[in-house]
Amino acid sequence: MPELPEVETTRRGIAPWLDGSEIRHVKVHDARLRWPVPTQISALRNLPVKAVARRAKYLLIHTEQGTLLIHLGMSGSLRVCDASTPRRKHDHVEFFLSNDNILRLHDPRRFGCVLWDTDDGAEHPLLSQLGPEPLGEDFHADYLKQALKGRKAAVKNLIMNNHIVVGVGNIYAAEALYRAGIRPGRAGARVSLSECVVLVSAIKEVLGTAIRQGGTTLRDFVNSDGQPGYFAQSLNVYGRSGEPCHHCDGIIKSKTIGQRASCYCPQCQR
């Protein structure tokens, strides 16, 4: 599933083609996505694109009349194609641009969505209750400590809770906790303020690295395969159960937390 860094990489890839252009019209080939594509989408014509933004894992295409909310679901991708490029089987929604290109949503499993909000999207039910962006100034140690206060749930589950902070998926949570030296199963309430300082920094570093690595693979999104280049770092713990830790002689262990396998180093993480 595309996570926050992959969605941000996609945003950076498509933005140069949409900024300053107009959406001349929209063609919906299959409206059966996670939620049915609203019928008014097909009626959108000649809308200047004001900006391409991201909130959590949603892409927001702001226009003068409202905002398109796009989620890539489990298998979705966006690509900008030359108008002569044949449409693929699972290209379900096409946005025809004034620069003679087409933005296509490709989603074989149809877990993504395309929705419309008549405002800027901030108060849309899918976005209004979300926590702060992990790379923003609102996500800091004091905030995290307060959010974890009195919580008996595992800290890994808490930092993956979108009501606390958005976009920290399983791989990034595991790697950030490793960098912070905190075991994933420790109760949130038992994470000190000084540890929150380190953990917030680790989350920002892990996500920032993932975005930068995705950015290095960005090419011309016209006639590309739409795949923005996923996280390609050398992982410290994720998926490495039974292997030696990169920084000590310990063996990476795994335990199930919140129905997910969570890998950690018993010597480096306490």
Question: Can you put this structure into words, describing what you see?
Answer:
The protein has helices at 4-18, 141-148, 155-159, 170-180, 193-216; strands at residues 22-28, 47-55, 58-63, 67-71, 77-82, 91-97, 101-106, 113-117, 253-257, 260-264. The protein is of the alpha+beta class and 270 residues long. It has 2 domains: 4-117, N-terminal domain of MutM-like DNA repair proteins (Alpha-Beta Barrel), CATH 3.20.190.10; 141-264, Helicase, Ruva Protein, domain 3, CATH 1.10.8. The strands form 2 sheets. It has an 8-stranded antiparallel β-sheet. The chain has a two-stranded antiparallel sheet with strand order 9-10. α1 (4-18) packs across α5 and α2 crosses α5. The two termini are 30 Å apart.
Features:
Helicase, Ruva Protein, domain 3; 23% strand; N-terminal domain of MutM-like DNA repair proteins; 8-stranded antiparallel beta sheet; 2 domains; single chain; alpha+beta; 10 strands; two-stranded antiparallel ribbon; 270 residues; elongated
